[in-house]
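W.,

You were right to be curious about this one. When I first looked at the sequence I had no strong expectations either way, so I just let the prediction run and decided to look at it fresh. Below is the sequence, 677 residues in total, followed by the output.
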Amino acid sequence: MKNSIYIILFLLVYVCISCKDDEGNNGMYQNRTVNILDYGAVADGQTDNTSAIQAAIDDCAKGSGTVVVPRGTFLTGPIFLKSNINLHLEKDAVLLGVNTMADYYNAFYPAVFGPMTSSSGVYTPSLIYADNVENISVTGSGTINGQGESENFPHENNAKRRPKLIFFINCKNVKVEGVTLRNSAFWVQHYLMCDGVILKDLTVYSHSNWNNDGIDIDSKNVEVTNCHIDTDDDGICFKSDTPLSCENVVVKDCVIKSNCNAIKFGTSGFGGFKNIAVSDCQVSKASEDNFRHWAINMAWSGVTSNNVAIAGIAIESVDGAALEDVSVSNIQMEDVVTPIFVRLGDRNRTYTGVPSTLRNVVISDITAKSESKLSCSITGVKAASVQNVTLKNITLNLLGKGTQSDAAASVPEKEAEYPEANMFKTVLPASGFYVRHADNITFDNVQMTFRNPDARPYFVFDDVKNSAINNSRPESVADKNFLKGISISNISIDGVLFEGGGGETPDDKPGPGEIGEDGVFTVGSNSYQTQIYGNLRWMVTNSKEGIPVAKTYEGKSEGENGYYYDAAGKNSACPPGWRLPTWEEAEILKATIEANPGSEAVKWWTDADFGAFAGINSGNWTLWGEQGVWRLADRESDGRKYCTMTIKKDGTISIEEGSSKNPRWYSVRCVQDVEQK
């Protein structure tokens, strides 16, 4: 009997030791904690610890548990996480990524991603990588540093195959919490086709290379809270690189410092975006500006500093995706080129074959300060309108400085262009919001103040219908200065139908940038008489655009007969849609005038009241009232310093090239092509 009891007890112990969990792992491997030092890791920042760290992960993954990275600097190549593993970095622990492309290529190609010749930019290597696993986490208060600044990595915009810092694909139940992520060679972290992602209390600082996005989310059921992001590229970026949607995402309580777009939807938008809410975030300039240099590369926008975010909020769908049910609220931003940029484009249709859609978006409770003339915009394409966008409780402190010429700016469509706030390469004709190809856009309590005077209307609507502006107009601003409408229908201001559509001001007079029946062209406060000669419309009064040159003639005020332009200044002399005439076009004008002496067409060139004058050196004017001299476009083939057309009071015309080293100033009359019917 006694022996039987011993046998039974032995069998029970044996069964317990040998029992398996649901995953088939021995119970003795569950909830283990292992230290990478026990697997041979060396904290000297020089020894390659890739094998030691991976061995610790693989051993712990026989069941589940935590792999501890203790205090010290551990050099490592790519690490592959396994299911049920927490990679935990203790305080003062550093995982230092290797800085040679070969280490990443050898680890990922072709076994993981296929041949290196593949053109895909999605499946790039990473320092911390996981594919089709579940219940994984990276936690602690340590640091992961990718050494992206190394000269061993390519440093070109959109250069492929650079490693990311963290890249998880098709994983379930993911958590990254507490750690500091620094200096990735590419995107800092990318979550692709994952389900259930928690990103919490992260610190991201990455200014080491191009395309240093802070967080790229392309998954579902995601929570991002209390993250501090400081990057040279996009801060938090939503993507949809596959046919699957990026959906059910909550982002809140984050600080975002960016040199590109702080909060961005797109560019990769193939599958779709839905049920995404961003709230309670602060946006400002990044701590460094190493690549973008906006004050240089966007000088035309009047941007005040290199170190600014190009957009605070950028909501884009251009690749066939359906973007819907998105909200962005309670965002405070400063140091941005433009606060709000919404763009529906028609670029790639990789999966859908149909145009993108962008609808059901609410942007609310926004406070922003801009640092350029580039206003906010909501634009679609001719074939697909932006739909159902509401902006409410918006307070904008804007730079201003828009000119009358800016108010007449022509905005190209650029339907297939890469979407970015600067994509149109021109200052927009609205000081606040430019809206085009849109349906059911509502502005409610949108307040705008300007730090400098601005000649542009607050709003410009072009091909917009069923939209309203409520509780947003200062009492002193008349309709024509508040809203300009072009091809609009059913637009109301505070419940009153706006009657200023069709590109006309309410008094039915030609608006800025239009030509009246009398041939007068108006741009801002300047009006120019025009005359058609053949297939060209010529200004027959002198231009007063651009920056005036401080040159005057005795008894005449500056600008009375138009401005005078030197070789550099001539490039700003023509309003949008107009240009300098060529030598050949001047020859045609000459023949026309000589063939019609004494005609109305000729008097615009020979009447002294409409003359122009040549300035030499200190500004001594030649032959006042006896002849006019006008600049032409340079002849590139000749390489001379200037070309001019001179017309004397008797109708004698000469067209000449000059190469004088002395400064010379001439008047300008611009031309534009006339459509032939």
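Here's what jumped out at me. The CA atoms of residues 46 and 62 lie 29 Å apart. And, maybe more interesting for your project: The longest helix spans residues 2-18.

Coffee later to discuss?

I.
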